[in-house]
Amino acid sequence: IDTAAPLGEIAEAFDIMAHERTAMNRSRAPFFGAIDTILETIDAIRPRWLPHEIFGEETEANQREQVGKISRQLAGLVSRATERERFLRTQEILEEAAGYGDTLARLASAGVALGGTERVERLRDIAEAIRELETRRLPMDGGASINRMIDDLEKESENLRNWVKEFGLS
Questions:
Q1: How confident is the model over 35-73, as pLDDT tens digits?
Q2: Which residue of 71, 89, 128, 168 is 20 to 30 Å from 152, comparing CA positions?
Q3: Residue-range domain boundaries for the chain
């Protein structure tokens, strides 16, 4: 598969997204169509650059092991963050969680030995939700927003733990 033409399609789609002006009386179809084009084109060319045949059993086992390890580390972070006596500062919690989210996103992006498209997409969603926590604004509201952030971190940790469990990893 030639990659120059598909990459051109992706560039054009990004151009549409960058220059599409929102208005209440205009259709968002071009914008959403551009997103679909990008996703479909990436799915079409990914096998050329990341064919599953190039990865050995050791690499595949390593990928699965990494997800299991991150699940355990994230659960540990949640446990430390929810202790009555919080020894971790909020920023430290967010940075550590974002690091786990970044690693999960990279693993999901390659999708090597992590199940089918739906499973990989679920892992990517979990990764993005974890990464999003670092960008949240934390207003001075008596700790309510911090508690919500920790609750959301705990929820995503549980989602990851369930993903790992369903996949047969520990």
A1: 889 888 887 887 777 666 566 677 777 888 899 999 999
A2: 168
A3: 4-49, 57-167
Angle at 117 between CA 94 and CA 51, to 5 degrees: 100
Other CB atoms closer than 10 Å to residue 100's CB: what's the count?
23
pLDDT in tens, 109-167: 877 778 788 888 899 999 999 999 888 777 788 778 888 888 999 999 999 999 999 87
User: What is the Cα–Cα distance from 22 to 24, expressed in whole angstroms?
Assistant: 7
Residue 87 CA, chain-centre distance (Å), reads 27
CB 69 within 8 A of CB 119: no
